[in-house]
Amino acid sequence: MLNFDELEKGFSEAEALAEAQRCLKCKDPRCVKGCPIENCIPQFIQAICDGDVVEAVRLINDRSNLAVICSRVCPHNDQCEGACVLSKKGKGIQISKLERYLADKEMELALTRVADKVAVIGSGPASLSVAAILAKEGYRVTMFEARPQPGGVLRYGIPEYRLPKVMVDKQIEIVRNLGVRIETGVVVGEDLTLDQLFAMGYKSVFIGTGTGLSRKLEVPGEDLPGVLQAIYFLETVELVREESLSVSHLPVKPGDRVVVVGAGNVAVDAARTALRFGAAEVQVVDIIAEHERRCSDKEYEEALHEGVRFSFENSVTQVHGEERMTGVSLQGFERQVSGRESRFVPLAGSERQIQCDKLIIAIGQKPFARIVSTTTGLKTNEQGYLITNDEPHYGMTTRPGVFAAGDVVHEPKTVILAMREGRKVAEAIDTYLRRSHL
Ligand code: SF4
Description:
Largest sheet: 5 strands, parallel
Number of helices: 16
CATH superfamily of the largest domain: FAD/NAD(P)-binding domain
Distance between the termini: 37 Å
Mean pLDDT: 91
Bound molecules: iron/sulfur cluster
Strand order of the largest sheet: 3-2-1-4-18
Shape: elongated
Low-confidence stretches: none
Number of strands: 18
Radius of gyration: 29 Å
Helix content: 25-40%
Strand content: 15-25%
CATH architecture of the largest domain: 3-Layer(bba) Sandwich
Oligomer: single chain
CATH class of the largest domain: Alpha Beta
């Protein structure tokens, strides 16, 4: 019987390292000039010396997608190896065997990686971005969403007139078509803990749950019926729209006089939504000056045009009422600056009372504590945001294998920033999982 076994054996790890260490890492590498696709040979050899196989593979794959084949069948003597400066002395670097060592390693990793499961908690912009990228890389991704439908802040935080939900549905369909499974109505931290997810075989967990807990105004009467949080209001509107709740749950009724505290995008969204539900008047108050407002100019102009009134350098100091709220006290403030410090000082004689039916609070949010409180090893800062690190893996929390990005790690920012962070963290999760197989 003829023997067709592959003749040449590949390098062991020690042999690959020893060979890589012989390379001079030339400043003007002739090996690269000799390579028809100008592979970054000295760089991937350096990565082998550094013990970073994943980086070495990434460098090769930047230029080649057939490294397993090329390392075996290219005429290396006429190309990179023949051009190597050490070849003249008959001791040229065996570049093809180093390439083969990496390519075979990559193949092993790719085959074992297919089985890796990743859990993504939350389904807002950061989570959708992470899930899509990892699914494209071949991971089995399951997304867990607490609400009845996926989309997070895209569905339950941004009003329909700014982002039609049919567009959110289409975007989610694209992610599903990549193979991502989406389980809705699952509250991680209550129905399922992170430890249970790992026990179920998930190799890594991404937390992209955003900020669902509103900051309180801390004024007397804040707990009276009629006072509500802007994110609760916006979410309820969407739940009614999608018929998960009946219309009777809508907290703003036709004819209501509404005051909104805060002048960021969430406050303006709440004000404009209240108008759409027939509020008789809507006034937004914020302690900062008009030029300091945090909502976009476009949102501000449109809100003014629709009839929203703004009172800057004012704040609510008390909510009045007995059974339910009947009005609020407003107080004028001015900013006093001394050195680097600045503070708001009440203006004497500016206090007045106005009658209103609803007070919507939109002065910021912070993350829910339910995942952190049911998991060991996850640390948050004083404001409740998850602490993540750049090293050894971008976006990894204080618990190995658990990553986070988006509003759950910093003050709420824009959709595009959450998506950008999601991309960086997805790449870090990929690297983490690849290394876990070495
Ligand atoms: Fe290394 Fe040879 Fe390339 Fe120089 S020419 S970088 S020694 S492989």
